[in-house]
Design brief:
Blueprint: E1 15-19, E2 25-30, H1 31-40, E3 44-49, E4 56-60, H2 62-79, E5 85-90, H3 96-111, E6 115-121, H4 130-143, E7 148-157, E8 160-167
Parallel strand pairs: 1-4, 5-6
Antiparallel strand pairs: 1-2, 3-4, 6-8, 7-8
Helix pairs in contact: 3-4
């Protein structure tokens, strides 16, 4: 997000160091004189470094500067890739065909560049047989190994056992 800079009459300092629009330094000048100088060039006086002593100001076209900064920000947002986490749930006694269907869906997610969280839910007495859930998760990982690698191995968290898969590079 673009921070708002002080410009023209908003500047409260008595003296400022001024940089001309072409980049040359004009030295330390009273703020009123610097404002007049910027006005004669039909530009704005903008504080670029408010923490310096005295503050550094630049004579520039502020509207043009703000527009170019917004354009740069939009370009950088375009290049970002948002990584989503898709979740696939199953039970420890899942049938082979159902497991295959879920693996096929997970492969699609992984090809799109998303992470996949695979969860096996245990209910009632199934909690006593967490080894079965671990086998199901490892079998699932083996089915999707062409597109994924295991990021986080199966761990039990409450009544669920989770595993994370990430796309292969």
């Amino acid at each position: 997000m673009i921070k708002e800079l002080q410009l023209n009459e908003q500047i409260r300092e008595k003296e400022v160091r001024v940089i001309d629009s072409d980049g040359s330094q004009l030295g330390v000048i009273e703020t009123k004189e610097a404002l007049k100088l910027a006005e004669t060039k039909k530009m704005d006086l903008v504080v670029v470094s408010p923490t310096a002593v005295p503050p550094v100001c630049r004579i520039m076209n502020y509207g043009k500067y703000k527009y170019s900064m917004e354009k740069k920000e939009k370009e950088s947002k375009k290049k970002q890739k948002v990584i989503n986490v898709k979740e696939i749930r199953m039970t420890p006694n899942i049938e082979d065909h159902d497991l295959g269907v879920k693996a096929k869906n997970a492969s699609k997610f992984l090809q799109d560049g998303d992470r996949v969280k695979v969860v096996v839910r245990f209910r009632g007495r199934e909690l006593g047989h967490t080894d079965v859930g671990r086998k199901v998760l490892l079998q699932f990982a083996k089915m999707t190994e062409d597109y994924s690698s295991i990021d986080k191995y199966p761990m039990i968290e409450g009544k669920n056992m989770t595993m994370f898969l990430v796309p292969k590079k």
